[in-house]
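# nightly structure sweep
# worker-07 picked up a monomer target from the shared queue
# config: single-sequence mode, recycle default, output format = structure tokens
# input follows
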Amino acid sequence: MTRNRLNMLIAVMAMVVVALAGFFLGVQPQLAQAANDHVQQTSVDATNRTTAAELARLKERSKSLPALKAELAKLTASVPGSASMSSFYGAVDKVAAGSGVKVSAITTSDAVAYTAPVPAASTEDAAATDEATATASASATAAPTTGATTATDPAISGKNFSAIPVSVSVDGSFDQALAFVGGLQDGARLFLVNTVSSSASQDSADASAAASTTWTFGGYVYVLTTDTDTTAKG
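# output follows
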């Protein structure tokens, strides 16, 4: 091998080494960066599509916001965050004036904390209880109870929900009393009536006068506080 050929071979090898070094030191990092940029771009595009879809959903939901606010205001008036009995008394007087009765008495008692209902025992539970408490009498049997599911909301408890016993007595005819209780139950404040009684009285000074009937409606109004440490106050 002549010296010229050796120099040529060395030069070619040097060129190859330079080319390889240029690829690994210059081109390869650029290719890797381009691939990484492509992955990031794909991720950003996916995020943008998700965000756009969520914005479109929120925009559509915002159309119902006024109706939801109105419904919330109605529900808040029905079961307020405080006892607000003075406003309830005002509603009673207004309904009484419209129905023609005269309010003779309104009484309230201390608020009663809510107690979650206990689900009814299933048939199997009733049978097990019956077997455990069976007596010597062969004829004594317990009637089975069917399973029942009681829907409760864990957000509602005795700490934030309470019932205030209320009794309202009015004087008037049957039709007037019926109109009164109907108007009261259709009012903004929820008033659940669970007892109704009546009593008639005659004016001893005027025997010809018609007997006066007093109607008493007993029930509950409710308070749902937003602060679980707050108790209902009048």
